[in-house]
Design a protein that fits this description.
The chain has 345 residues and is an alpha/beta fold. It is built from twelve helices and 15 strands. It has an eight-stranded parallel beta sheet with strand order 4-5-6-7-8-9-10-11. α8 links the parallel β6 and β7. α1 packs across α4 and α7 packs parallel to α8. The structure holds magnesium ion (MG). The site of magnesium ion (MG) has 6 residues, from loops.
Amino acid sequence: MQITVRPLALTLETPFKLSYGATTVRENVLVQIDDGTFTGVGEAAVVPYTGETPARVSAYLGDGALAAALGDNALWLEDALDRLPPGESSAARAAVDMALHDLWGQHLGQPLYRLWGLNPARSSRSSFTIAMDDDEASYRARLNVAAAQYGLIKLKLGGGDWRDDLERVRIARETVDAPLCVDANGGWSAGDGLAIVPRLAGLGVIFVEQPVARDDVDGWRALRAGLPDERPPLIADESVQGVDSVPPLAGLVDGINIKLAKCGGLRAARRMIALARAYGMRVMLGCMVESSVAVTAAAHLAPLADFADLDGNLLITNDPYRGAQIVDGAVRLPDAPGLGVTPRD
Ligand code: MG
């Protein structure tokens, strides 16, 4: 099998302001695996907070050990995935996993969701993310645009004082009728969370993502103990990485946000979904700032999720591929074999 690696610089439509800084360009990496009959494609998202760099991703993808591990039979997907070098970069492993799934699906002539027996009509509605914005008029304008197109609005919070966050949600509630969810990206203390979450529930927020810092186990425990049972579900995002990170969260969080770049790909994501269900957790399917390649790969799992947050490709102006789409707020999966993505030019 032939591996081709190329950089993919994605331009953000709006600078992304999170609790840990602002960015305008993301340096992702595309990988293509060609077996002489078909070409599978995958994407590695380079995400600031995970410590990924384009160089680390490319080093993994360009290593001869990887090429040797792929074998020569695209149908023996599990064998190839078992042999992948461990490597530090989960995003790079995810890219290879996507490309191998794409190749496998193309050989079998079916889209991935169909090979897994999933009903595409069961795909959860996908949220659209609104970044923090101190200009209230432009914040309201962006909320109105998003609400006209998407069934669920996700507000980024965690920028400082929780009272400012509450005010942002009040403004959003006043501006649009669409259901709201929030993501604090670990920006609150347990005390902040105890103060704001009941108020968010009163504003109709349907779930709260990553209220406390990723390693703040005591914070998660304090929230579970101190908040009423009928709270909006508390979903771990940064606190969840790969398959191994799920069992320790049982009893601490109400659900997990699975992202391919964090967990290492579709096979790991499917194992995490099975584990989460065994522990009675909700499942959210998320993405990074990614093109339609990685977003579509994740979208094939949307029929298994309670919540989808697959808007990474909608936040960029130069998506080189077409794939899954959000139509009337719901995820619409492509019919073509494998990932089902096609280049735009
Ligand atoms: Mg998040």
